[in-house]
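Dig into my protein:

:::
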Amino acid sequence: MNGDEQLLRGRVYGCDHDDPNPGPLPPRTYATLVGGPLLDITSWTAEEVDGGVALATELSRWPGGRALYDPSADEPRTGLGVACRFYYAGDTP
């Protein structure tokens, strides 16, 4: 399965590329990285979700840097499953 197919099936950030089941698992809670994979936020507090995330990636402007994602304040957040969306906000070294 190529990267585009993994994104369409809901690949979870941090899963190994050869993981036979890289998708979401019940009863975990996820944030959708718009334009990217899911991010497991099961144990995050509301304040941590509000703060966004800086994810290690080799696909950023700076290889080995971080891709920054922030939630939208205008979107509701719910319980288990996909709880919110994080939008790409830029790259950092």
Notes: The chain is about 10% helix and 30% strand.
